[in-house]
Design a protein that fits this description.
Structural class: mainly alpha
Number of helices: 2
Oligomer: single chain
Helix content: over 70%
Largest sheet: none
Shape: elongated
Length: 81
């Protein structure tokens, strides 16, 4: 079976980079909240974990969609065994 290399377009690459930066910012905020000298309120913790979960889901759903789209395109170009 032939393996194909995925080379994202500039637009795809930018979308992934921005989504990753948002995910990283949400992670940093959650980490700062958890490592603070005083414990966070339940509302702060809920908001930070929800933001991190949402950004994580968005990032991985976007990545998965791009990979699925590439696989569907490349399936037509791969020889059948």
């Amino acid at each position: 079976m032939q393996q194909t290399e995925w080379l994202p377009t500039d637009e795809e690459w930018c979308e992934l980079c921005f989504a990753f930066m948002e995910l990283s910012q949400a992670h940093d905020h959650l980490q700062t909240l958890l490592l603070a000298d005083s414990p966070p309120s339940l509302q702060q913790l809920w908001q930070a974990t929800s933001a991190y979960r949402n950004h994580s889901q968005t990032f991985f759903q976007s990545l998965a969609a791009q990979v699925r789209a590439r696989v569907n395109l490349s399936e037509h170009s791969l020889p059948r065994s």
